[in-house]
Amino acid sequence: MIYMKLYPENLEEKINFDKVKALIKAQCTSSLGTDFVDKVQFSKDYEQVSRFLEQTHEFVQILNSGEAFPSAHFTNVHPYLDKARLEGTFLYEDEFHALKASLHTLDGCVRFFAKHGEEYPELTKLTGFVELDDSLYKAIDRIIDEKGKVRNNASRELSLIRSQILYEENRLRKVLDRIFKEAKGRGFTPDDAAVTIRGGRMVIPVLAENKRKIKGFIHDESATGQTVFLEPAEVLDINNELQDLAYMEKREIRKLLTQLTDRVRPLIPVLRKAYHFLGMLDFIRAKAKFARQIGAVKPQLEKQRVLDWRNARHPILELALRQQEKSIVPLQMKLDHNHRLLVISGPNAGGKSVTLKTTALVQYMLQCGLLVPMDADSTCTLFDQFFIDIGDEQNIENDLSTYSSHLMSMKHFTRFAHKKTVLFIDEFGTGTEPLFGGAIAEGILLHLAKSGAYGVITTHYGNLKQVAAKTQGLVNGAMRYDVERLEPRYELEIGKPGSSFALEIAQKIGIDREILDYAKTHIGEDRVRYDRMLTKLENEQQALRRSTQEHKQRERQLQQELSRYEKLAADLEENKKKYLAEAKAEAAKLLVDVNRKIELSIKEIREKQADKERTKAIREELELLKQEVRPTLKDRPKKAAAEPIQVMEGAIQVGDTVRLKDNGAIAEVLSLSAKEAEISIGELKSLVKLKRLERISAGEAKREKRVSSSRHASYATDKMLNFSPNLDIRGRRGEEILPIVQNFIDEGNMLGVKNLRIVHGKGDGILRQVTRNMLQHMPAVRKMEDEHADRGGSGVTLVTLKD
Fold first, then answer.
1. Which of 191, 231, 490, 691 has the fewest CB atoms within 10 Å, counting from its CB?
2. Which segments of the protein form a coiled coil according to its record (predicted)?
3. Distance between the two ends of the chain, CA-based, in angstroms?
């Protein structure tokens, strides 16, 4: 048997790769590109495949970017170059015109990659094939105009010849017009006749009966013979002169084209390389356009033999379904060194063969350098050999049956498969008696497993499922099936065997129970039980999937509700800040207005030295202003009115409890004099005038102390809620920070906050020095140090207060 790394010879037709190539050809703009499509072949070279994939990926980016890239005149000029290669030959005007247009396209491509070289490095490397400058294009452009004709000024001789032709044509026209006008006036010509050309010479139409009345030469006659086309004798010399000039023009043009062809001839090797580049670009662009058509990408390519495909699709099938406005079910495929051969089982028409053909086609596309229809985070690898056994290979001439052809393929597989082989076998073991076919298939499967080959195999044989379940390197796969509806789901599930669901389908269709019972008896109880187990497993998995989907849906709803709640809370907080800001702004404005009014009033009293009446009027105005302001404070909570203190009658004696009238402080009388008393308020002793004191009972004193204590506690609570252990004094002057820092330390000490931070910045170090000098002399401070370097370092002082 002849060794082939691709088996069989018609492999591309069997996996529909010929249709892929046809679709790529349709995207080419010329035969330059289609010639490359015909040369596409399977490659095991990692570097080459990677380069092809990257080139196509870069061109997809060009198409997606909308950048202007040359799209016309990718002309195949190789036939013209073959013609020009021969000495003495020359290219025609239209051929030079095509060459000129394609050279312009070639220059446009080179210029594009010179501008975008960093964005498209792999494509830019291809410009190395182009060694041409613009001298040939300029030489052709000097001779050939935009319409593909030789220019009048291509040479001095041609310019003179064409000027003379124009002169003689004008002279000929004038003479003919005069003669024709006279003949028409004498009735010698048809009514609708006009000057025309016959045999390259200008003639006038004359009625046949009048042809002898005008001297000249007859060149032609009408179909009816009633009109002849006559060249008057007077214009004979002029026409002869024009004929001679035409020959001279043709000779000059031929000379110019020959000279231009001589200019092309030595450049033919360089031109062939340049047009090889142009053909590659047309081919790569066609691959990129096809990739966009089928949603293909460049996957992750690994040298380690691992296939991990996400959402792979059969491109031909997907395009066909798209035309029917249907969607394809994507394939999830994974093969590695532990699970090299995937044995897929399941019901007929469940998608086994489509899965196998999808895997085969996509892998083959990849190794031909094409982008593949799957997710970009998929992992792919390359193989050295590619074997398939798909379809009916019955050969009447060689007298091979279907089963014999399968065995011929298996012979090739078992002889030549190794660890760098990927193989695909559809309906493994079918075509002969199941008992023997299954046994032979089992032996072949075990042999292929030992070879280390990778691949996909489809089967209905139960013994192959059992072998796959217990053999290293093999793994079962099942095509999912909706048991309730008896419909295939076309989804591959790796890790378990599939059931054919033959009994379930037959029962659903309505086959008699007696027949089904007979079938169950002859199948065997173990086999029926095994199939039932698979069916039960499928049902349980479907129920689990439904439950999981419901759980995920509830989780999504919960997440939405949580997001909505968080948004609402954020909105409320934002509105709170907004309203507070507005209230503060309004209060500030009100305060400014009131202060301004008061200042103006004071100023008026001082400047005008207002009398009592005017002063009284001003005070009344201020009182009105106070009444206007008061309603804005009506919503503020009112403090509960304090109960009045019960004052005792009689003279104050030593030991009495008294209250200072002006500030409400409670004190004890220590000693008395005529007008003063020595009192103690806690540890503080003081002399006050007797008229500032009032005598109260001990019970009243206790009640007042409780109210005072509560008042102080409320104050402390407010302070605690509004106190921040961080003080930022950056940007202040040294003298400004003294009371600020002192108050900060005192409040922290009073509220029992032990750890404080003072942010003074680094700068010139003045604020840091002033701050730390103060802290050293504060008795409440136990220690101070720099903050951690990540959180401000020496720009922040950490203060620890004493217990």
1. 191
2. 530-628
3. 97
Give Cα 746 distance to the centre of its chain.
Answer: 59
Buried (b) or exposed (e) across 48-69, using 16+ Cβ within 10 A? ebeebbbbbbbbbebeeeeeeb
Residue 52 is encoded by which pair of tokens?
A: 């092809």
In CATH, what number does 723-801 get?
Answer: 3.30.1370.110
Mean per-residue pLDDT of the chain: 83
* pTM for this predicted structure: 0.62
- Cα separation, 160 vs 162, whole angstroms: 6
The answer to whether the beta carbons of residues 722 and 753 sit under 8 Å apart is: no
DSSP secondary structure letter of residue 241: H
245-to-165, 167, 252, 799 alpha-carbon distances in Å = 6, 11, 10, 110
Question: What single-letter amino acid sits at 14?
Answer: K
Torsion, Cα of 279, 282, 285, 290 (10° steps): -110
Residue 112 is encoded by which pair of tokens? 């594009």
Q: Does domain 6-152+262-295 have CATH number 3.40.50.2300?
A: no
Convert the pLDDT of each residue in 672-726 to its tens digit.
Answer: 888 888 888 765 577 778 888 888 877 766 666 665 555 554 454 555 556 788 8
Residue 530 has pLDDT above 70, yes or no: no
β partners of residue 781: 801
456-493 pLDDT, tens digit each: 999 888 888 888 888 999 999 988 776 566 667 778 88
- Cβ(417)–Cβ(453) under 8 Å? yes
User: What's the CA gap between 251 and 795, in Å, rounded?
Assistant: 94
Going by the annotation, the residues of the binding site for ATP are 346-353
424-295-489 Cα angle (round to 5): 55
User: Which homologous superfamily does the CATH classification assign to the domain defined by 307-497?
Assistant: P-loop containing nucleotide triphosphate hydrolases (3.40.50.300)
Phi, psi angle pair for 633, to nearest 5°: -105, 10
- Given a cut of 80, is residue 634 above it in pLDDT? no
> Residue 33's Cα: distance from chain center in Å?
29
Name the nearest CA neighbour of 495 among 360, 336, 344: 344
Binding site listing: 346-353
Q: Which of 416, 389, 384 is nearest to 405 (CA)?
A: 389
CA distance 761 to 519: 91
